[in-house]
Structures are given as structure tokens and as C-alpha cells.
Amino acid sequence: MLYFTLILALVGQLVTAYKKQQIALSEASTNFSGQLYQKIALNEPNIVYSPYSIHSVLTMISEGARGETSAQIKDSLSITSLGDTVHAVYKELIKLLNSFKEVTIHTGNALYVKQDLHILPAFLENSTKYYNAKVDNINLSAKGGPERPINDYIAQKTKNVIKDVLSPGDIKPDTALLVVNTLFFNGTWENSFNPELTTKEDFHLLDNTVKQIDMMHDNRSLRIKKDNLNGLDVAEISFKGNRFTLIIVLPHQMDSLTDLETSLAQPHKVDEICTGLDHVDVQLAIPKFKIETSLDLIPALKALGIEDAFEPGVADFSGITPTGMSVCHNIIYYLIIDLSCPVYLSQVVHKAVIDVQETGTVAAAVTVAKVTITSEPVNLQPEEKFIVDHPFIYFLRDRQTGQILFQGKFSG
To answer: Where do the Serpin domain residues begin and end (predicted)?
Structure first.
């Protein structure tokens, strides 16, 4: 009996430790997303990106970084405190996401390696072990160019929502490695909107003009919050299974949108926004919208403190390839020339799409990092109104883990 009790206690401790690690990873990814938002979204009227996709692919790459390069990546991703366990935590998160059946959600990782490049076995092993990464060679002789097979992989993983991420010529003879992460989400609302109630209505723009857009309507019980202290309203609209939700954050005044955006850089701000919601019968009206965004992330990542990784001769990815040292030697000695130069990140591109409709939401994202060798209505009596008729911020969030899969802004 005592032995059984000890086993239960041990299991309980392991479960608690696991939950703490998932919370820590969620906080790290959310904090990174809030900082990244300041660099990529403040000047954009409409934007969508995937914090999960960007954070996870950079975390996978961090396993092969060393020295100051490693420290900068981990600090910017807020994963330093998790240490090497971060990869095991990501493994469990990937399993949790891909096993949920009430919505269609798929994540994928892939490494495309230059044929004659020696990748350290430990990096390949950890990428496959923790991130289920597919490993393949870059096919320089592929019909349509070496970019075609990778674009085909991304299109297949995102159900053709995202195509042609790589352009002809993106893969050059000195391209050593491409690290790819894909995320696809297709969720049906717990309660769908009746398309017959969708009408053209006024949406107030940031420049004080008005635009006619499609607005979806319903009367329903909804988790909302009226936060007069911070001047914003929050609504949480659930997908089937009630695990994944679309959270809309609507400032009371249009001129306070920038203040709301800036506040996202504060630690735990998103958690604060997402807590304190209560079920209320509401008259709901939200825009029907679709946003596509393509981003070159290098300027933003540099501004967040990841600098060395993008500098030839400075970047230290010696955990990926033996030629990833932090010093590049050009030595002429008895006519023997050593051109063993380091590898560095030469490109980090991200593309995301979100499509919010009456039946549900489809969203997809891809992040590619290139490593280069130097060279119907319910009959309710609503107590409240939640009318989204001016610019707002949104999060597509996993309630179980706290992970933000997609984040962005809609301004009409």
C-alpha cells in the first residue's frame, strides 16, 4: 500500500512538473510574441503571424548554436531558464497539438541539407527526436529548381493555403541548410454564424473614415469581459471541443489602439487580457475577414537582440556543422588553402494566412530559416452587445497550453 502511495505521489510530481514546464514555454512564446509585435505590426493596418511557428523553429535552431550566438537566441526567445529541457517540452506540445481531434491541426518540421555538407549527428538526432523533423537533401537538379520540392512540401502540409514561399534563386550553391516549420489550423465554431445574417455594415477606420465590410451576427452565450479600467472589451469565441478559441480584444476608443498594442510587450499582459471572462448572453457582430502576411524577420529579430546569428564570421553554429565555428580562416601555407568558413543565418521568412468565416476559421503559417555558408441564431434576450465595428487585436489560442498559434490585427 505504501509502495502504491509512493508511486501515485511520484506520478503527481511528474505531472505537476510537466504542467509547470508547459506553462513556462507558453509564457516564453507569448513574451517573445509581444516583443515581436512591436517590431512588425505597429505600422501595419492588417497583419497575421504565428508566434508558435516562429518561436519553435528558432528554438530548434538554438540547439545547434553555441557561445554568444546561443545566448542571444535563447534570451530573445525567453527560454534560457528552461535550459536543454525546452526541446523535450516542445516534443510534448507538438504531440498535444497534433493529437486533438475536434479541430484539424497539423504541425510539421523539416530539414533540407546540402548534399555534401556534414551535419553533426547529434543535431539531426535531436531535430527528429524532439521536433519530428523530416530530413532530406536539397536537390539542386530538381525539375523547376531546388525550391520546388520545398514549396511542394509546404503546400501539402498547409492544404495549399500557403504556396510558393521560396522564389527561384532563393537556394544558391552556398545554401547549406533550410529549417522549415509549418502550422495548419481548420476549426469549426462551437456555434456557427448564419450566413443569411451576414450583412454589409459600417466599419470605422483609423483615419476616421468609414468602410463597408461583411459583418457576421448572432445572439449567443459568450465569454466576455468589459474592462473599463484598461478601456477594452474582450470576447472569446470557441471552436468545436472548446480547447481552441479566437480572442478579440476591442479598445473602447480607436485612438487607444496603439496604447493597447504597446502594452503587449509587458510580461503576462496577454494572460491578463485573457482572464476574468464570464459567460454573458450577448448580441454579437464581428467582421468576416481574411488576411495574408509575408515577412522578412531578420530586421525584427536583430532588433530583439539576435545579432550574431546573422553575421558571417561571427555566428557560431558549431553544434550544427563542424564548419560552423566562430572564426573563418583563409590560410595560405605551402600552397594549401583552407577555406573552412562558418555558417550563418542568411534568411528567415514567414508567411501566414487567416480566414474567418461563418462556419469557422482556417489559418496556416510557415517559417523558413536558411543557413548559408559564407558566400444559426439562438433565441436569447441579450444582456450585452459586443459589436466589433472598429480596429481590434486578435489571438487564436490554445486554452490547454496557453500557446498563441496565431496573432494579429484587423483594421478594415
So the answer is: 34-411
The closest alpha carbon to 258, from 160, 133, 392, 167, belongs to 392
Q: How far apart, in whole angstroms, are the C-alpha atoms of residue 213 and residue 317?
A: 49
Q: Which residue carries 528567415 as its cell? A: 348
Contacts of 105 (CB under 8 A, 6+ apart): 97, 98, 183, 184, 185, 186, 187, 244
Helix (H) / strand (E) element for 294: namely: strand 289-296
Report the C-alpha gap between 234 and 218 in whole angstroms: 17
Closest C-alpha to 246, from 39, 412, 392, 89: 392
Distance CA 74, CA 97 (A): 23
Q: State the Cα–Cα distance between residues 408 and 396, nearest whole angstrom.
A: 9
Q: What is the CA radius of gyration of the chain?
A: 23
5: helix, coil or strand?
helix
C-alpha cell at 255: 485612438
The whole-model pTM stands at 0.90
Q: How far is CA 135 from CA 91, 110, 179, in A?
A: 17, 6, 10
Give the pLDDT of residue 254.
84
